[in-house]
Write a structure and sequence with these properties.
By secondary structure, the chain is α/β, with parallel strands linked by helices. The protein is built from four helices and eight strands. It has one domain (7-156). Helix content is 22%, strand content 16%. A hairpin with a 2-residue loop joins strand 7 and strand 8. It is globular and about 55 Å long.
Length: 160
């Protein structure tokens, strides 16, 4: 299933979406097109596979937020966090075509807080780490603990 987020006259199409593609931490990069030697995945979580949990330094989270504000590898569509349980009381307000949702309805606001598009990239120790921008959400909301090497690369990253 593909998710599209199309803005039309202040309304957003959230009807079509996709869940995050899962890749284990440190697996060779295999998302998108072409070959990417030396690039590995970090933080590509789903609701099936277990992941490391723990605390991440707030300073590193802020650096990741800055990196996520200028995402790389943008594709069409958005990924929604699979780890969050959708509250039953959310309301989807649609237009008569039943496809385009009002961005101010409770469901659209809830999805916006836990969806993302694009990646952050940092390098360290001869490895390039590719993480979805949702990594910040996974850390803050679900206590995801990325690998130490990734956190060190974030710490050493120069952000312009």
């Amino acid at each position: 299933m593909q998710h599209s987020r199309v803005k039309v006259d202040n309304f957003i199409d959230y009807n079509l979406y996709s869940m995050m593609t899962y890749f284990s931490d440190h697996s060779p990069y295999a998302y998108g097109h072409g070959s990417h030697p030396g690039v590995v995945h970090v933080g590509w979580l789903d609701n099936i596979h277990a992941y490391s949990k723990g605390a991440v330094d707030a300073r590193l989270i802020e650096k990741m937020k800055l990196l996520a504000s200028k995402p790389l590898q943008l594709y069409r569509g958005m990924h929604i966090c699979e780890l969050c349980a959708e509250p039953p009381d959310l309301v989807k307000t649609t237009l008569p075509n039943r496809v385009v949702l009002d961005p101010n309805c409770s469901w659209a606001r809830w999805v916006h807080q836990r969806s993302g598009n694009g990646e952050i990239g940092v390098s360290g120790g001869g490895i390039v780490f590719a993480a979805p921008v949702l990594i910040v959400h996974y850390i803050e909301a679900h206590s995801y603990l990325p690998p130490t090497q990734f956190l060190k690369a974030v710490d050493e990253a120069l952000i312009s």
